[in-house]
Amino acid sequence: MRHSRRGRAPLGEFGEVEKYVRGKVFASCDVLWAAARIASIGLGGVLADTTGITSVSYLGGSLLLAAGASGLIRCRHEDIAVEPRSKLAGT
Q1: CA-to-CA distance for 46 and 38, rounded, in angstroms?
Q2: Which among 16, 55, 62, 88 would be 20 to 30 A from 22, CA to CA?
Q3: Which phi and psi (to 5°) does residue 40 adopt?
Q4: What does the pLDDT read at residue 21?
């Protein structure tokens, strides 16, 4: 087993991260994701109690639209080409 240039992450034969390290990273991401979900549910409940459910729905919708717009802008900025489904399916 060899190590990366910085000597931190063990690398496999072709420079891939070993499975046990990958599992720890994915588990950490999952823990953070679950904590963020719980926090957002709590924050949404507090906002719904103070401002009403309609404003929380509008806020959630506007955040989704902002996330979609930023994704589209990033794709356009980085010139990411999206292949048509017919080419991906091999037909």
Answers
A1: 13
A2: 88
A3: -70, -35
A4: 82
